[in-house]
Amino acid sequence: MHHRQPLLSRRSSKTMQLGFVGLGRMGSNMQARLRQRGHDAIGFDPNSTTSDVPSLEALVSSLATPRVVWVMVPAGDATRNVIGQLSRILEPGDLVVDGGNSRFSDDQVNADVLAERGIGYIDCGVSGGVWGREQGYALMAGGDTRDIERLMPVFDALRPLGNRRDSFVHAGPTGAGHYAKMVHNGIEYGLMQAYAEGYELLAAEDSIVDVPAVMRAWSDGTVVRSRLLDLLVNALTDDPALATISGYTEDSGEGRWTVEEAIAHAVPVPVISAALFARFASRQDNSPAMKAVSALRKQFGGHAVRPAEPAAIG
Q1: Residue 129, phi-psi category: left (phi > 0), alpha (psi -120 to 50), beta (remainder)
Q2: Active-site annotation holder among 91, 188, 260, 291
Q3: Where residue 247 falls among pLDDT bands split at 50, 70, 90?
Q4: Please, are residues 302 and 130 in contact by the beta-carbon 8 Å criterion?
Q5: Is 261 a catalytic residue?
Q6: Disulfide-capable partner of 299 in 64, 69, 177, 231 (CB 3.0 to 4.6 Å)?
Q7: Cα–Cα distance between 72 and 84 in angstroms, integer?
Q8: Active-site residue among 181, 197, 254, 291?
Q9: Any catalytic annotation for residue 188?
Q10: What is the pTM of this model?
């Protein structure tokens, strides 16, 4: 079934009320962006001092019906637990959005749990990192067209200025939004690895006297310019040799899922696969390339990095 894009590309002027569960790095910035644009985003997070209400039940009670609750918590058990709780305290006609990095295969399970109570469900991949609060987020949504259109004022507030099609897509039915975000993150793995390997090669050549300057010179006019390149230049400006961090690099899981899906569909993804395996290798040897990847993750997502181990004495 074809899922059409919303007809209007201009921003929706309607303001909405919604509950926002999860006020971490992404969640708190998204809540702030929604509030800046006139929406009543009431936040709950048991681990945050900025929580507006003391409990999930209090959050639901504070919302006018029909309610919208946007969930922005870690993928896996945390998301499943929140969805399960919401299924018991929300009412028919309410709508839940999972905006975290859940595996797409979890979405239909979550949707079914909510559907038993007549509650709608949207899965929404969100990309924008720590700068999204000011510049906006790219959004990849999956779910019923009527639910997507109902929430369009919120999507429009979260995305950047400009044509809606440049930063928002109704990718398809339940699960399609998170599938699209999974592939997005797999591509991100490959791009980061390519920049990191280029950095290591430049650093290995004695005739290159200023590696950060070379990479900065690629920032405008070249075909390899990108947001990720800008972030790597920022990291190298702060620490030209990346001496303060180790090359140990985590993976969020989405690179693994992308490779698993490629195997299931018999689609060759050698670059994404190699980038994933390079992260595994980073946990065995301290690699300059993986230091660059680790620095990039900190720049765009605020992810924690491991400090470099002190040099051995003697």
Answers
A1: left
A2: 188
A3: confident
A4: yes
A5: no
A6: 231
A7: 15
A8: 181
A9: yes
A10: 0.86
> Token pair of 308, please?
């470099």
Closest among 216, 203, 213, 186 to 242, alpha carbons compared: 203
Res. 12: pLDDT tops 70 = no
Query: What are the tokens at 44?
Result: 């709950």
Tell me the pairing of strands 17-21 and 40-44: parallel
The two tokens of residue 291 are 């230091």
- The percentage of residues in the chain with a pLDDT greater than 70, rounded to a whole number, is 93
Given this model, what pLDDT does residue 286 score? 64
